[in-house]
């Protein structure tokens, strides 16, 4: 566990995520300006304010570290050994229509590895966090070790574009597979908070397409799942974060193997 000036990186990630979550919670229900980013995508003042709060915490404690923020972009040396990845409000559309399904993600990439991370739920008050070796959830100032479980049979599937592996893989076709319905029940919350829920045993798995390298959205959740003991790969079993190959994060090897087989079944031969 890296400790600088008396504070570990993991505790700093937790504190920063809590700071962002407090802003998100305080601004909930307000009439917030929207700032268009791309087709169908936008930020609100809550996204911007939460990111400012997170960056204030990180830059005060670690002024020499580089940062990539969802809203503010990259700062610091391009080849920095230590880089914080910040997603201040994952689930902006949910939030904008007053749906309390959002997460605040903070992760530290040290070299090729994510060595500290936190995902905060602004409305439950929970923070899921890891030092890269173990993972916990903090609630009411007490920490409980995260324990994955496939018992719910609930699988969260990301249906938001882009889908770089289409037409070879499309999540809607996975949901239509009879084999999926025989084993699992789908959920779509449209926030990477659901990835943390896999680590916590509240989801059996999470599946998404996309290029997740240096992803401010997914870095924290992937780190939590790995530290909790989940099985985590790309869509076809390859090491995650190595290309535009998406993610299968599963509570156990059996659930992962089933989903991997279903994904391969939905991928036309040769694609």
UniProtKB/TrEMBL annotation:
Its cofactor is Mg(2+). Mg(2+) binds at residues 70, 87, 89. Keywords: Magnesium, Metal-binding. One of its GO terms (molecular function) is metal ion binding. It holds the Pfam family Inositol_P. InterPro entries: Inositol_monophosphatase-like. GO terms for biological process: inositol metabolic process; signal transduction. PANTHER family: INOSITOL MONOPHOSPHATASE (PTHR20854), INOSITOL-1-MONOPHOSPHATASE-RELATED (PTHR20854:SF4). This is Phosphatase. It comes from Streptomyces alanosinicus.
């Amino acid at each position: 566990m890296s400790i600088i000036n008396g504070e570990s990186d993991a505790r700093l990630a937790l504190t920063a995520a809590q700071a962002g979550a407090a802003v998100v919670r305080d601004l909930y229900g307000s009439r917030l300006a929207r700032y268009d980013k791309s087709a169908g995508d936008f930020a609100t003042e809550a996204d911007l304010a939460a990111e400012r709060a997170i960056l204030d915490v990180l830059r005060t404690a670690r002024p020499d570290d580089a940062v990539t923020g969802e809203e503010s972009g990259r700062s610091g040396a391009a080849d920095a050994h230590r880089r914080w990845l910040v997603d201040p409000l994952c689930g902006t559309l949910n939030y904008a229509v007053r749906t309390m399904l959002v997460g605040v993600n903070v992760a530290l990439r040290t070299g090729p590895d994510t060595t500290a991370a936190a995902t905060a739920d602004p409305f439950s008050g929970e923070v899921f966090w890891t030092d890269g070796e173990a993972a916990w959830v903090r609630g009411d100032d007490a920490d409980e070790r995260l324990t994955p479980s496939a018992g719910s049979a609930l699988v969260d599937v990301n249906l938001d574009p882009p889908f770089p592996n289409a037409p070879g893989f499309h999540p809607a076709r996975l949901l239509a597979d009879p084999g999926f319905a025989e084993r699992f029940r789908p959920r779509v919350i449209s926030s990477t908070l659901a990835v943390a829920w896999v680590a916590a045993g509240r989801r059996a798995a999470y599946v998404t397409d996309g290029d997740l390298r240096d992803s401010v959205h997914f870095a924290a959740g992937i780190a939590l799942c790995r530290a909790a003991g989940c099985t985590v790969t790309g869509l076809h079993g390859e090491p995650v974060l190595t290309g535009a190959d998406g993610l299968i994060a599963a509570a156990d090897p059996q659930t992962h193997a089933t989903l991997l087989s279903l994904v391969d079944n939905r991928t036309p031969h040769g694609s």
